[in-house]
Design a protein that fits this description.
The protein contains 14 helices and 17 strands. The radius of gyration is 21 Å and the shape is globular. The chain starts with a strand and ends with a strand. The protein binds N-(iminomethyl)-L-glutamic acid (NIG) and fe (iii) ion. The site of N-(iminomethyl)-L-glutamic acid has 13 residues, from helix 3.
Length: 393
């Protein structure tokens, strides 16, 4: 029999298996049995003793809270360089400009595979330590065929959720012939990256790619077997949400500037609105209105957008705290969006939920309830993380 662990005496268990009005499927005085990389049983701590047979390791949660591992559905973790100077300037009043992306492109192109791999490994360790057990990684700081392909390859070493983002910005060398760059993205670059990628993404925004260019690039990706997702409505109102919904994208990310038609289109679609409050924190933009989306019936995910320009944090607990403090979410909604919501944005049903058959990815908090994630911002509340049934040392 593969290794089994019974985690018992859980004061508050967030299962995300919806019960009546509680989408978090909260169970008090609970226990979870893991076997191999899966959860095999969830129930009350009182019943748990009947499950202890043979070589089951028993872990006492001491009345603390347990939640599913965070699902961070939007990151840009493969890059070189540092843009702390831009952050300092923004805090002194300089507005965020997506043009800074080109600085990271230059630093990334200059870095060796090993340098990028080391940096990536450090960031992945940072995510894991903060309770993230599933994460997506985008390319987008290479912007040549060879560089995008190596970023996709390096990303695929750490996650199956790789997104091809050759359409991040038009690189400097194509400044005066952007159609040629779109052609390149849709042909050679896509061909070089598709084998390592599951998703195709476009930064559909003024200063990046137009709606028409975005549609073309996403359609090319779909034709190569990739599924679409979109960066949209980040810096101002634009067509990103409408492009995403029309193509049946899994998610449209940022969603900071939305009109009523965007909200209605999202509500009537299967596209998740992924909100990235680390960006608003770090760029001093207004936060997106999560309450408006939730009231309209839109599925909302929270993600870190970890990248060196607009949001250099990998902390999902910080996203929860910001969503509750600044975006009108309840703590239950924010925790759901950072776990089950992220899973929906990645079209995964094996993570973000604690139920028999789901992956044994869970987090024991150093707190009696999940509310403490927002109530005690900045405090390291991640006590133990199980990934695929194994506790991190
Ligand atoms: O998601 N919006 C586009 N891309 C990133 C920012 C990248 C950067 O500034 O380096 C984002 O915010
Ligand atoms: Fe992003």
């Amino acid at each position: 029999m593969s290794a089994a662990t019974l985690l018992t005496n859980i004061g508050e268990l967030t299962t995300n298996v919806a019960v009546d009005a509680d989408p978090c499927g909260t169970v008090h005085d609970a226990a979870v049995l893991m076997e191999g990389d899966r959860i095999v049983w969830v129930g009350s701590a009182d019943e748990a003793h009947r499950r202890v047979a043979g070589s089951v390791e028993v872990v006492d949660a001491g009345g603390r809270a347990v939640i599913p591992g965070f699902v961070d559905s939007h990151t840009h973790l493969v890059f070189g360089g540092d843009r702390a100077d831009e952050f300092e300037a923004r805090m002194a009043g300089v507005p965020y400009a997506a043009g800074g992306i080109r600085r990271t492109v230059a630093a990334t192109r200059a870095a060796s595979d090993d340098e990028l791999r080391r940096r990536l490994a450090g960031l992945v360790a940072e995510l894991h330590a903060q309770g993230t057990t599933t994460f997506e990684v985008k390319t987008g700081y290479g912007l040549t065929v060879a560089d995008e392909a190596r970023l996709a390859r390096l990303a695929a070493e750490v996650t199956p959720e790789v997104t091809f983002l050759g359409a991040h910005v038009v690189p400097a060398e194509y400044e005066d012939r952007r159609e040629d760059y779109v052609d390149l993205v849709c042909a050679e670059m896509l061909l070089a990256c598709a084998a390592h990628s599951r998703w195709v993404d476009v930064f559909c925004e003024r200063g990046a790619f137009t709606a028409a260019e975005s549609r073309r690039i996403l359609a090319a990706g779909i034709a190569h077997g990739l599924q679409p997702r979109v960066h949209g409505n980040q810096l101002g109102h634009g067509e990103g949400v409408q492009v995403a919904v029309a193509l049946g994208a899994a998610s449209v990310d940022h969603c900071t500037f939305l009109d009523d038609d965007d909200v209605a289109a999202l509500a009537a679609s299967g596209t998740v609105a992924t909100l990235l409050p680390g960006v608003e924190f770090s760029t001093r933009q207004p936060y997106p209105d999560a309450r408006r989306l939730i009231e309209a019936g839109v599925t909302v995910a929270l993600a870190s957008d970890c990248n060196p320009g607009s949001s250099f944090t990998s902390s999902m607990p910080l996203m929860i705290a910001l969503a509750v403090r600044e975006m009108g979410m309840t703590t239950a909604e924010a925790v759901w969006s950072a776990t089950a919501g992220g899973a929906r944005a990645l079209r995964r049903d094996d993570v973000g939920v604690l139920a028999p058959g789901s992956r044994a990815d869970l987090v024991l908090l150093d707190a009696p309830t999940r509310t403490h994630l927002a109530y005690r911002p900045g405090v390291p509340l991640i006590r133990t993380v199980w990934r695929r049934g194994r506790a991190a040392a």
